[in-house]
Amino acid sequence: MQTISWDDFIKVELRVGRIIEASVFQEARKPAYVLKVDFGPEIGIRKSSAQITALYSPEELIGKQVVAVVNFPKKQIGPLMSECLVTGFHNEQGEVALCVPDKPVPLGTKLL
């Protein structure tokens, strides 16, 4: 495992957002959703593609708080310009489980 400095870590803007919209990403090569995530007034609403269809339905994602990287450059994914990276972990089957706070926190809060 490669080690990083504290200065490297604090450059990554891991922020809490709330999913306000989730729909099937029809044009994706692998099953995915298009998510709209609200990070509060400072950052606003960002779009992301997430390959989380095995464990989540679009309906159950609405209102869920998630942790995302908000300071990566935008990335074109098919017709979608992804504006953040929603984080998660692979389970034993390779399905992605979202990284979420276990208690509600204000939108835009930075992970420390």
Give an overview of the whole structure.
The chain is mostly beta strands and 112 residues long. It has one domain (6-98): OB fold (Dihydrolipoamide Acetyltransferase, E2P) (Beta Barrel), CATH 2.40.50.140. It is built from 2 helices and 9 strands; from the N terminus they run αβββαββββββ. It has helices at 6-11, 58-61; strands spanning 14-24, 33-38, 45-50, 65-69, 75-77, 80-82, 85-86, 88-90, 96-98. Strand 2 (33-38) and strand 3 form a beta hairpin. The longest helix is centred in the first third of the chain and has 6 residues, at 6-11.
CATH superfamily: Nucleic acid-binding proteins
Q: Low-confidence parts lasting 5 or more residues at pLDDT below 50?
A: none
SSE series: HEEEHEEEEEE
Number of strands: 9
Question: Mean of residue pLDDT?
Answer: 97
Tally of DSSP helical segments: 2
> Globular, elongated, flat, extended or rod-shaped: what is the shape?
globular
Please give the alpha-carbon distance between the first and last residues.
21 Å
- Gross CATH architecture: Beta Barrel
Biggest sheet: strand arrangement: 3-2-1-4-7
Per CATH, the class reads: Mainly Beta
Provide the helix percentage.
under 10%
Assess the beta-strand content as a share of residues.
35-45%
In terms of quaternary structure, the protein is single chain
- How would you characterize the largest beta sheet? 5 strands, antiparallel
Number of domains: 1
> Based on helices, strands and strand pairing, what is the structural class?
mainly beta
Q: Rg to the nearest angstrom?
A: 14 Å
**CATH topology (fold) name:** OB fold (Dihydrolipoamide Acetyltransferase, E2P)
